[in-house]
Amino acid sequence: MRLSWNEVRARAAAFADEWQDAAYEKGETQSFYNAFSDVFGVRRRNVARYKAHVAKLDNRSGFIDLFWPGVLLVEHKSAGRDLVNAYEQAGEYFNALPERERPRFILVSDFQAFELHDLDGQEAIAFPLAGLPGHVESFGFILGVQRRTFRDQDPANIEAAELATAAVRSRSR
Prior knowledge:
Oligomer: single chain
Number of strands: 6
Distance between the termini: 47 Å
Helix content: 25-40%
């Protein structure tokens, strides 16, 4: 059963409190993301893997810190490191992936700051670790919940729908 958003927010607050002093990428990243996945009631091992090898386009290779094919690519750094560089590195990995495995989301973090990039929606949010409870719904994809964007309908579509509705009404009289 999927957790309620209130439960997820409570878990996120506990997570933020527990990890407020985390700083060392090599020693704590995997535990951090196992616990992060647990905030949403999801076992990381069931959806994503660590250190996924990528043959980059410049004939070098690299390792994605956390990879959920088709969904999420995470590039993680030690506290205080430049997240702009982390995002550029994630972009190199993204470009080297087969089309079918390219994720919709890229997350870069240094434990204390998060940047979540939605590549389909072409939007990004940035917030501190302490702000995670207020941003959990942005990670709804972990639960299989997708935000949908609705655009205004073309006036011709609206007019056609109104004409169709009027025609149905006149036939039923």
